[in-house]
């Protein structure tokens, strides 16, 4: 699996999300500042609600900008056993039920799902419990981690 190609897909997805968030922020800003939304009394909160929405959308735009910058700056190095799993490592993981998943450990963009011709890859960060547990581990290692209130056992099948 080509990590550079996965990163390109991730960047395309983030850029698409950024454009959507920009449009949503602009729409919310226009609603917040439109003359018809000026409060006529203390119970008329449409303009206030629209301004809260605009602020939230603006924060989302900034978060996506930061994710894009972090992924663009991340050097994608091949997995090196002495170093263990680091940001940018692609990991094949099996849980205690034998279910396998592919994870791309990154600086941001957690929860995004990417696909190539053969498999789906989930982006996670080192801030997540699973991501934190993976840092420094090696292919073949096993570890336990509490996730969603349940202790689970994992095995690292491969790292790239």
Automatic annotation (TrEMBL):
Highest taxon, organism lineage: Bacteria
Listed GO biological process terms: regulation of DNA-templated transcription elongation
SUPFAM superfamilies: FKBP-like
InterPro entries associated with the record: GreA/GreB_C_sf (IPR036953), Tscrpt_elong_fac_GreA/B_C (IPR001437), Tscrpt_elong_fac_GreA/B_fam (IPR023459)
Domain Transcription elongation factor GreA/GreB C-terminal: start-end pairs: 85-158
UniProt keywords, alphabetically: Coiled coil, Elongation factor, Protein biosynthesis
Keyword match Protein biosynthesis: yes
GO molecular function annotations of the record: DNA binding; RNA polymerase binding; translation elongation factor activity
Coiled-coil residues: 4-31
UniProt-recorded name of the protein: GreA/GreB family elongation factor
